Amino acid sequence: MPVESIFHRLEALLPKVQKPIQYVGGELNSTVKDWDSADVRWALMYPDAYEVGLPNQGVAILYEILNELPGTLAERTYAVWPDLEALMRAEGVPQFTVDAHRPVRAFDVLGVSFSTELGYTNMLTALDLAGIPLLAVDRGEDDPIVLAGGHAAFNPEPIADFLDAAVLGDGEQISIAITEVIREWKAEGRPGGRDELLMRLAESGGVYVPKFYDVEYHDDGRIKRVAPNRPDVPWRVHKHTVMDLDEWPYPKKPLVPLAETVHERFSVEIFRGCTRGCRFCQAGMITRPVRERSITTIGAMVDNGIKQSGFNEVGLLSLSSADHSEIADVAKGLADRYEGTNTSLSLPSTRVDAFNIDLANEFSRNGRRSGLTFAPEGGSERMRKVINKMVTEEDLIRTVTTAYSQGWRQVKLYFMCGLPTEQDEDVLGIADLAKKVIKAGREATGSRDIRCTVSIGGFVPKPHTPFQWAGQADHETVDRRLKALRDALRGDKEYGRAIGYRYHDGKPSIVEGLLSRGDRRIGAVIRNVWEDGGRFDGWSEHFSYERWMAAAEKAGVDVDWYTTREREENEVLPWDHLDAGLDREWLWQDWQEAVSGGEVEDCRWTPCYDCGVCPTMGTEIQIGPTGRKLLPLTVV
Ligand code: SF4
What we know:
alpha/beta; Transcription Regulator spoIIAA; 18 strands; binds iron/sulfur cluster; catalytic activity; B12-binding domain-containing radical SAM protein; CHP03960_rSAM; rSAM_horseshoe
């Protein structure tokens, strides 16, 4: 039976809301398939506003892959702003997809991609608007399977009660595998109902179904164990790793937004994974090992993406783009190819070295030399050793001096506050560093027309990193240090006016910390917040710390216990049954090394130090050089 579009009902509401265009769909390269041509149908959600969600690569890639699959259909849905939410509730309009404006509840799967935990309340809004029961136990045979992915899904325990399933790691292959399991189950006449479908998914070991695992607690609140409650469900669920990125050159048809979005460019992911070993970086740890896309595929994807989309900006994405083994050839090849055209290139790299500036120079051939960003992350040498960010003060000063003397006028420096073992002087060290940067820049250029901006965020310990056991700094400490740094920067007569300062207060980090390392008991807090009106928690104008604290108190949850408490080695962590490939003993050892200032090298260039990923996952580091060239082009 075809499912009707709800657009005629939505249309009447659009004149009354902000930015109505974000709800109308019809973007270049969007896909609307005939409902009956598919037997498996996915609604893909990015749980934030359209302007943030549309450029998300994960959703865009799965959208294309699933729509290319015969008998499969995928549409997108985003979080609606509170103004439209109120009207939809008043008029009984359900959560819809922007492609064909079909009700989300009609789909087989609602796949939600979480880059951050602060999107959890938006998922509840979407479920509620869709008419899908919030709790997985209350869902019936006609409700979609609610499936989470993305980096936050590496600890989905705080939202376990709301999820039917979660997937860890790269989505390309597993989304197809899940589709085939659903197709087969439907073709067989849905034997055993929803429960059997979830069982079939869980048995594979590649899909986590929270309801098939029971959590037992000690009297003091720590977890005693997490164990499967069905015989055929594996004890641990593993992440997925795509080993040959060249086989998956997506997006091939980039979505071109109709409304304004945070990025309006064509992005090519040039590699996945990072082995630099920054201890605070969850993305680096959970996406190991490094797998590079070849130079020929990058060249072909850029060419094709521009032709398909008409974008005039190309971004080369990864966790540390200057680290691609053939980046110099990629940069030169692309800069040559697009010199004199209106296509601009960007490389979001924050590496602190002269090579990064060479690359930035290549990429700015078509544009102005405005700003360069470097990320020393820690304000003192000691702090940088703790986090394994091997950048000396000398490296930084030399690098920024080169940048200023080559015509760059603005340098941005990224730092974190609240890192493990941090003292006040580590944060105040940032002021000294920034002053030295300006001093060196003035000397190198003979000009006072240079600027440096210090950007600093609160550190949140994340699962599957060496800091997963660390006590998070309380927000009072973070705020005190951030203010002391502000005073030290602003109070300086000689350099203060040349240094910009951007920071956020420490309270949102505490909520993020609660959600990142929480267990199933945090679900009640999320629900309380949502029932109290919590929406768009990633937006400072919508976020309310007081609402979260009141919700925690109502749920009987001690926020400090989850955030500022340091864990012991043998404490069962809520995500221990979810396998990111990293060896727990190695993570612990690295945490101990951090405290004593020990460093680890990048295993891309040095021998393996046994973090566990490659042997556990059957994967390996894949880097060039391939010796191939960007040109001539191959066809994707
Ligand atoms: S197993 Fe070895 S080679 Fe593989 S990511 Fe870990 S340290 Fe690097």
